[in-house]
Every structure is written in C-alpha cells, then in structure tokens.
Amino acid sequence: MSERYARLFALPENLYAAGAPVVIAAGALLKDTQTDRVLAQLKLRNIGDKPIKAVTVKVVPLDTVGKPLGEAVDYQYLDLNEARDTTFGAKVPIVLPDAATRAFSASVDEVIFADNSLWTAAGAPWEPLSVPVPLETALGDSELAKQYRIEYGADSKYSYQTEKDLWRCVCGALNHQEEAQCHRCRKEAAALAAPDIEGLKERCQERLADEAQKAAEAKAAAALKMKKAKKLAMIIVPVAIVIVAAGALISSHMEKSAAYDDAAALLEEGEYNDAIAAFEALGGFKDSAERVSQAKYDKAQTLVFYAKTGGRKGLSMILSDGEAVADDADLSKMYYEEAIAIFEELDGYQDSAEQAETIQNYLHAVELVNNGDYEAAADIFAALGDFGDSAEQLEGIEKLGMYWPYVGEFAYTLDGEQHHLSSDFVIEDGKVTWEVTIPDGELIGLGNYFFLSKGDTRQWPVSEDMTVVDKNTTMGTVTVKFENGNILVTGKGGYIDRSDYDEFWNRQYVKVN
C-alpha cells in the first residue's frame, strides 16, 4: 500500500481450522489517513484439490483491548477460479464500519467450489499452523541434510510435520491426512513419517569417506595420466589417429556414457560448476539437459544455505580462477544475488520462480532496515518465516525501538465529576502525536484538565507547557500543550515489553519508524 495507508494490526500467519479447504495465509488492518476509514485485507490460499469460485469470510472488529465492536462483517469473494496452492484476496479491501477498530479476528464460513459443491464451517477454531522447520535445523547437520536430499529428493527443504488433519511434506506443501502422497512432489507420507535416521547417518559417513577417497584417487590418477601421456605421445599419435578414425562410431556412445557418469559423480559431490559444464558438453545425451537444470538448482540452493552465515566457503562457486573479493565484501548478498540469477534463469523448473521472489523480498527487507524503514521490513521478514535469518532480523528490529508507550489518560473535571477524554493517534516523522479532544471544543480552563498516570494516584494538572515522564519507565516522555482548543500530546521513545499489558487499565502502544 502507499503511504496513504497506515498499518494498525496484523493477524498471525496461516490460520487454519480442521477440515477447511483454505488457510488464511495473512491479514492486516489498515487506516486510510485521508478518509479515516479502517480496512481489513485477507490473503487466502486454496489447500484443497478442487478449484474455488467463491468464499465467504467473517471479520469481527475489535477495539484496542480486544473487545468486539458491534456486529461481525460478512464478506464474499466472488467470480474466482483458484486452483490448489494459489492465493487470492490480498488486494481486496473489506471496509469496517467503526473507525475505532484497532484489531480483528477472521474466519471462513463457506467455500463454493467450481463443481458447485459446498463446504461449510463446523465451528472449529481458526488457529495458526506451526512454522515449517528447515531440514538442516531438524537434522542438525548440513551433510546429513544433503544425504537426506540424495535419498528423498533435491526438493526436500523442511522436516515432515503433522498438525490437526494436515501433514506438511518435506518439499513444503500442505496435504490432507487422507492423501497418501504429496500432491506436489508425489513423495509417500509413510516413508517421510518414519525415516531411517541411523541408516541415513551411516550412509552419510560412507559417502563422505568414499568422496574423500575418490578425490585422492582422482588426483593421483590425473597426475599419472599426464606423466604417461607425455612419454607416449610421440610414439602413439600416428597409430592413435588411425584407430580413432576407425573406431569413432563404435566408441562414441561408450565415451559419452563414461562422461555422463563422471558428470553425475561431480553433481553428487557438490562440484556444481564442473557438473554443469560436463552435462552441457554432452548436449542431448540421455537426460543431460535435465541434469543441467538440476545442477543449477542445487547450486542455487547451496548458495542460499551459505548466504545465511556469509562465510567464504561458497566463494569457489561464484568466482572465476584468480578472482578475489575484498575482506569487507557483503558475501551473503553476493550469494543471494547469484542464487536469484540462477533461479530466474531456471524459471519453470521446480519452484525456481518462487525461490527467486523469496530471496528478492528478503534483500528488499534488508535494504529497508538499512534505510531505517523498520515497520515495512518487519512485515516482510514476518511473511518470510524461517527463510535465511528472517526470524533473527525480525527480533532485532523489535529491539531497535519500534514501539512507544502511551501510559495514562487525560481527564477533565466538571461540576465535581471526572470525565475521560477521547484521543486518536497521528504518526509523522517518527513521532507519535495523541490529539486529545476537549468535549464539544470547550476550553473549561487549565485547572480543570488532568493527566492520570498509570499506577499513580496523583492527578497531574495540565499546564500550557508541561512534560510528563511516567515513573515506571524512562524509555520516553510526552510533552503536553494546548492548541486550537485541543490538548496535543507528542512523544518519542523506545521499545517497552508488552507482556504485562493486562495489568494496566489504560496502556496503549503505537508502532513508529
């Protein structure tokens, strides 16, 4: 959205109710700063095997402390044609009737499919699904994760998980319990649910030992071959020419088969550049073209893995012989950009387009952080979930100081009776302004207005120029003054823990850049 819209609230990601054919992938509450209208937006994803043509959702507006505001709003998405795994609704605003709405809950009541069959909600709660666990994290070892991919497929990214009536495949796809195979990659759920981890570890160690031995033997053989070639070249060249000419047609297939096997070995050993060159040299022999795409995809995936730590181990994959980089170079960005280039080149192969978009979103979020736009960056990192160090980035943003506490309330006394004043928030240039409106615009007199500090029985009389520092925090201050018949309260401060929100009768928070 443009700067015209201020984000007030976001739903947890991937809300799901048992038996539902959709998940609520994301949701946000926005305020139109020009019209003061409050809008809800939802992004839904079809996780069933039938195309969807209509969906009815229910949005319950909530106030600042989570209490419902009036009646729930029903909204219907019409004229859809959404196949499995597609998302929809993210750009459709749902206007909420009460401008005081500061949060909302959402659920799906009804789904109509393309064949006119109907799913109706049975009242199960809509709760967030667990975050996928990366394969490297689940297994605790990158080489063991590589062995897993060798045996279960190169697209294995996450650990197998079950939740409610769903199971998440290692490729990341959500499936229903009655589906024996993943709808995306066709892996068997039974095999993924009970992997032979001990056997996997044994085969991983055998592979590593075999790779080390092969590397040593290949190096020795190459040296010996070079030595013999030099001695025999002048003797056998004339004869070899005759033999090669006579046997070219017979030996060509055998040579290509041997070269193919060598290229496959390079790919298995993670020598992606050499494997790509070897398969490309084979042209249309067997499935060499497909193996080129596989090698490039695996290379990009490995670069993404190296990018999280930013170490120099992956430089050999992106630098030419003799090429070097500065000691202070941003290696993570270099790995990510190279991975994007590869995934974009592979557009259409597996989930390359999605992978490229994910990395681009991540780099954009990092750039937003560097430019100080923490709020926008936090939204992207939250959407990225466990990609790279997104979770760590999101935690770091929160510690940078995105929240400023408004603790207390303004009141006035009339005829001996105390009345609370309403207020609204305005955010500009990183400062928060509370415009506390005097009833009917009447200025009763400075002596009649008070600031009631949280946890403090004293009343702070409002003066023409006063500063209030809450005694329970030194993170920020508010400055108060009268202007145009209103009490204007401005403040700028840092982050404060919100875990004790319910202890206080009037604690409110505003997100600022």
Key terms:
513 residues, elongated, disordered C terminus, 26% strand, 10 helices
Helix content percent band = 25-40%
**Distance, first to last CA:** 16 Å
Q: Extract low-pLDDT stretches.
A: 401-405, 471-475, 493-513
Question: How large, in whole angstroms, is the Cα Rg?
Answer: 31 Å
Description:
It is a single chain. The chain is of the alpha+beta class and 513 residues long. 35% of the residues lie in helices and 26% in strands. It has ten helices and 25 strands. Strands 1, 3, 4, 7 and 8 form a five-stranded antiparallel beta sheet that branches. Strands 18-19-24-23-22 form a five-stranded antiparallel beta sheet, with no helix packed on it. A hairpin with a 2-residue loop joins strand 23 (476-483) and strand 24 (486-493). Helix 8 runs antiparallel to helix 9. The longest helix is centred in the middle third of the chain and has 72 residues, at 197-268. The two termini are 16 Å apart. Residues 401-405, 471-475 and 493-513 have low confidence and may be disordered.
